[in-house]
Specification:
The protein is of the alpha+beta class and 357 residues long. The protein has four domains: 3-47, no CATH class; 52-94; 110-236, Nuclear Transport Factor 2, Chain: A (Roll), CATH 3.10.450; 244-353, Nuclear Transport Factor 2, Chain: A. 46% of the residues lie in helices and 21% in strands. The protein has helices spanning 3-14, 20-29, 34-42, 53-94, 102-119, 123-129, 138-146, 148-162, 226-236, 244-251, 256-259, 267-279, 346-353, and strands at 168-177, 186-194, 199-206, 212-219, 283-289, 293-295, 300-310, 315-325, 328-330, 338-342. The strands form two sheets. Strands 5, 6, 7, 8, 9 and 10 form a six-stranded antiparallel β-sheet that branches. The chain has a four-stranded antiparallel β-sheet with strand order 1-2-3-4. A hairpin with a 5-residue loop joins strand 3 (199-206) and strand 4 (212-219).
């Protein structure tokens, strides 16, 4: 072949369009023709042989496998999402004890903000986020409204005294349905962890006003409990939620929870007094607590507790004041207790006089 024919074949060969005979003729020609060899070398496609069919098929298979893997991953994720939505939706409808739903997740997010308020010592926002609960009288509402600034200062002082020197490391929250709360409400827990191993735990339920009220609080390895008392005092302005004092006195008089409602310096004597009352074989037939009233002179909330007890001879009724401030309850002294008896023994009268220690 002459140079003109070879030059016409070189582009076709580079695209793989010529026969093997033509390719061999080109390779034989450029061994002796310098100009054609330079043209051959200038075209890069000549150095790349067309891919074999098996190589092309492997590439296609790899692409298909990659596409299948992505589809499998997407399918698993979709099943997981749909399963999670179905699970939460079912719990939302049934509201089973201890289960989690969309409501509980959203409430955990809300109470986490309250936990951050405590951890950051932003007690102004904390007080504004707390429900005052059921206000039974205009007097009680006036007490709560007039004590806001004092509440904030009490919270700051007690937090500084017990937790102010510690550094918060993390905050955890979780919420679930609790059948023990009226209306199958959601109970939420906030756990604040500190760098020295101390943990502050507080639980909340949502009030009808959309704000939160605390059910209970605790600090690990804590002897003073001043911040706990202040938290309870501010949340309710009442350390005795309705019915609790009656149940504790009548059924669980030996419980430390009962004595912990009193200021720390009175707890042991209160527990000893109630235990001595039970050990003597006496029981209460009725326990009642008056509505809260504010004592301006003592700057505290005042209750009157009425205890009715009986022995094998007759009945006795004791009335006594209970004073409440942010330190807890102050029990009455024996000279503040008034006992009215009917045919009972003197021993029962004496036991009632010293029931609170």
């Amino acid at each position: 072949m002459n140079c003109d024919m070879i030059k016409d074949l070189i582009p076709l060969c580079s695209e793989g369009l010529c026969s093997d005979e033509s390719k061999s003729a080109i390779e034989e020609h450029i061994k002796t023709c310098e100009s054609c060899r330079l043209l051959y070398e200038q075209i890069p496609q000549l150095k790349t042989t067309p891919p074999a069919e098996d190589v092309a098929l492997k590439k296609v298979n790899r692409k298909l496998k990659k596409m299948s893997l992505k589809q499998i991953i997407l399918a698993v994720l979709l099943i997981g999402v749909l399963g999670g939505i179905s699970f939460l939706s079912y719990n939302q409808i049934t509201k089973r004890q201890g289960c989690v739903s969309f409501e509980t997740i959203f409430q955990s997010i809300e109470v986490r903000k309250i936990g951050k308020m405590i951890a950051n010592q932003d007690f102004e926002s904390y007080v504004d986020s707390i429900s005052v609960g059921q206000v039974e009288s205009l007097n009680q509402l006036q007490i709560i409204n007039s004590s806001r600034e004092k509440d904030i200062e009490l919270l700051k002082e007690s937090y500084q005294a017990e937790l102010g020197s510690k550094k918060v490391t993390k905050i955890k929250t979780h919420s679930f349905y609790d059948e023990n709360i009226r209306g199958n409400s959601i109970c939420s827990f906030v756990h604040i962890f500190y760098d020295d191993g101390t943990t502050f735990d507080i639980s909340f339920i949502k009030g009808v006003d959309g704000l939160y009220k605390s059910l209970d609080a605790a600090i690990t390895d804590n002897e003073d409990n001043q911040f706990i008392n202040t938290i309870s005092y501010v949340n309710y302005h009442d350390l005795i939620p309705s019915g609790v004092i009656e149940r504790l006195i009548m059924k669980r008089s030996d419980s430390t929870l009962y004595s912990n409602r009193f200021a720390m310096q009175y707890r042991d004597s209160v527990l000893d007094g109630s235990k001595a009352f039970r050990d003597a074989g006496y029981t209460f037939t009725n326990v009642s607590l008056s509505p809260a009233a504010y004592d301006k002179e003592l700057d505290c909330i005042r209750y009157t507790i009425t205890l009715t007890a009986q022995d094998n001879k007759g009945t006795a009724i004791a009335q006594a004041p209970l004073l409440l401030n942010d330190h807890g309850l102050t029990p009455p002294t024996s000279d503040q207790v008034q006992v009215y008896s009917k045919d009972c023994t003197p021993a029962l009268e004496t036991a009632l006089l010293h029931f609170f220690g």
